[in-house]
Amino acid sequence: MTPVEIPRLAPPEPAPPGPVPLARVPPGPVEPGTIPATRGALARRLAPLGEALRGLARSEAAPAGPVAARALAREEVAGLGYMLAARLAALGVMAAWVLTTLPIERSGLYFAVIAAFAALGFPPWLLARRAGAVGVAAAPFLMLDAGLLAYVLIFPDSYATEGWTPQLNLRLPSVLYVAVFLVSVSLAHSPRLVLLTGLAAIGAWTAGVLRVAEMPGSVVTTSVSALQSGASPAQMVADFLAPGAVSLTALYNQVMALGLLTLILALSVWRSRRLVRRSVGAETQRLALARYFSPELIGELEKDPGALDRPARGPAAVLFADMVGFTTICERMAPEALVAFLGEFHARLARAAFEHDGTVDKYLGDAIMVHFGTPRARPDDAARALACAGAMLREIDRWNAARAARGEAPVEIGVGLHHGEVLAGNIGDARRVEYTVLGDVVNVASRLERLCRDLDARLVVSDACVEAARAAGAEPQALVPGLVPEASRQVRGRSEPVAIWRA
């Protein structure tokens, strides 16, 4: 860190013995070539910071998914609204301070500046709301903000104390207001906007200080030149406190501080955007899982996202539910009405499945396939499957009561249910996968559903499923009222008859 005492910038020369008189730093404009050389040195010092900012901008430009992009765009627009609210609140406080501390004849100019800053806050917000995203529309206004702020802070107004100069203005901690301005821009939730505004603020502040340094009566000082000149500590202090002194070392520190603040704010916003992307991605995955699994099982899958990619064998109950007479219903309905009708039918059955922690495998036209025991087997899988089947039948009865009240035909379904060992996991190729179960249990459950029509039954359950439910401590007839044993039946694809129950 450079010393706080910051003497003049002058070409190195041998120092005479004794104190260095103040007359060695003559008042007036700086020598030609001094400020351009200083600008070059400042540019070299800021080169690493600029490269870091450009790297951050490149990383931010990486494309995001459409869902995450829309979420980030909404956050940016909302952020500009918060930034506008914060700006108006801060300006209101400043207006109250001016009104209570300054004479009324000196308040007009301050109120005009406050009004100008308030007006400049509205265009970016209005443009972003119309476009649905921040984009580059806000950048010119924020850069104009930075320039106006630097001008107001550096150059004195017409009511300033007599003898007060821009050089003296640089002694004030006015740069803190620039820092506050940069912090407010971070509310826009756009790293690119923070970077652009930060660079604009640094450029405007630097240009203002250098403009003051080129004014008549300015004496440019730096700590390095003072040490090289051999000035005494007392002379350094005198030079630094001279009315026309302009410390470029102070400018270096201010620019570095503003640059670091800009970088930290941009990194902070970039980090928050990454968290938004992850949050949106996690929510998208959760919504995708919610189409198949109950909320209780989604939590377990989030702990082990790769569980579905590892096919596993285990006991499970498989349920098929199909609408009876669907072809006849189709003939009497318009396509749009048919889609709505099927959507309501599927929603009612899926709701019953999720209420009993079932996994919705797929919709097969007017049918639904559900399994219990995936992706993790539980002792009561068969009992929950039976309870789900009973809930589906009751749900269809309630729906039919509502349809009858509207003069619509009733809906009939057939449900088949079997329990046994299955292979569960993601099936498919790299382009499309589907979580499903495979095995003889699936085939038998489908055949039992078709058997409902031959037996004039609404539900056909294998004896294996009933016994598995009893083994879990459940009473099948309590889960499905009217469930009674039926003679064994031969089903297609099975050499041995299947013992069944019906309801």
TrEMBL record:
Pfam family, one: Guanylate_cyc
GO biological process: cyclic nucleotide biosynthetic process; intracellular signal transduction
Membrane spanning stretches: 80-102, 108-127, 134-156, 168-188, 193-213, 251-270
Biased composition regions of type Pro residues, renumbered to the chain: 9-30
Protein keywords: Membrane, Transmembrane, Transmembrane helix
Domain Guanylate cyclase: 317-449
Region (Disordered): 1-36
GO molecular function annotations of the record: adenylate cyclase activity
Name by which UniProt lists this protein: Adenylate cyclase
Organism: Albimonas pacifica
